[in-house]
Amino acid sequence: MDSRHDPVYPDAKSPTSFQDGLEFQDFVCSELAKHGIILQNLSSRKYQFNVGENLQGFEIKQDSMCTKTGRLSIEVGERSRNDPCLQWSDSGILRADNSWLYLHGNYAVIFIFAKNWLIRYLKEKKPKIDEKFGTIRTFYLPIPIAEKCAIRVIRAG
Length: 157
Known about the structure:
Blueprint: H1 17-33, H2 45-50, E1 58-62, H3 66-69, E2 71-78, E3 89-90, E4 101-105, E5 109-114, H4 115-125, E6 130-132, E7 136-142, H5 143-149, E8 152-155
Parallel strand pairs: 1-4
Antiparallel strand pairs: 2-3, 2-7, 4-5, 5-8, 6-7
């Protein structure tokens, strides 16, 4: 696949992070279809920024380590590179788009949350905000709380 037009994130953990995210989105769509939920993803930059990830309003986030760490890393801010002169932008659960559901997980398990529940959790519990690679801000949600508070938990396979 030609990745010359993929967004460039020079400080990302992996140079293939954009494509990895797209593959995970496809995996999630496939898993949801097994449960009768069909997503219409939007792939162009224009529609991704102006509408959202898909027409249904599902935000999809991959957290490859969540089953090993025992916690979900919930995104709240981002910037394109590790540069202290750049402003942080709201992202993840704080991004102003059409999303109302937040699907978070990995190839073993997918948690489906109401986005407003995660925002309320952030405001009420005030978990510590962690910064990764100088490009992502997250807070951690323990998996036992995620299991209890998710709308649905889908075990892949």
